[in-house]
Amino acid sequence: MIITIVYSTIILAITILHSWILIRKRLYRELAVFGLLMIPGTIFGYLAAHLTMIEDPLFFLKWIYRPFNDLFSTFFPS
What is the rounded distance in angstroms from the CA atom of residue 51 to the CA atom of residue 7? Predict the structure, then answer.
């Protein structure tokens, strides 16, 4: 429980600090990318803090890129 509280506090501090800087400089695209990268980073960090077994990262890459690969295979058959 204490790990979750400490981890959440650190993530919240990092997110508020960087978001405030990006909003002040009006870098809205960078803010969107920061948010999109912060979400999976937070999830994987939380799982690592609780020593949860997760799948091989290659499995996730295959899961993400398989639809694109199938799409290109239909457009450009060999």
Answer: 13
- Model confidence over 29-69: pLDDT tens digits? 999 999 999 999 999 888 888 888 877 878 888 988 999 99
Tokens 């960087």, located at residue: 18
Output the CA–CA distances (angstroms, integers) from residue 65 to 24, 32, 56, 58, 69, in the order listed: 35, 22, 15, 11, 6
Decide: residue 11, CB within 10 A, 0-12 exposed, 13-18 middle, 19+ buried: middle
Give the Cα separation of 13 and 6 in Å (integer): 11
CB < 8 Å & 24+ apart, contacts of 33-36? none
